[in-house]
Amino acid sequence: SDFLSRFGFIRLLIESDTELVAEIEATKASLEADKELLAEELSLQIQRHAELDAARAKAEEDKSQLNAKTLRYEEL
User: Fold this and answer.
1) Residue 1: DSSP 8-state
2) d(CA 44, CA 35)
3) Is-above-0.70 flag for pTM?
């Protein structure tokens, strides 16, 4: 009787541990998927930032050229 009660307890403990391990593995897989998505998003944000920097530099260059043309026009 004592053996059966211990055996039942151990069986419940093993089942509980098995469920817990499965939950942990599922959570880990979900977190890894989220990490991949975040890495892709970060890469995209870095690319967009570089594109904006290039566009900003081009706009500044265009502005300088326009200012130079305006000065030449005003001199005439």
Assistant:
1) -
2) 14
3) no
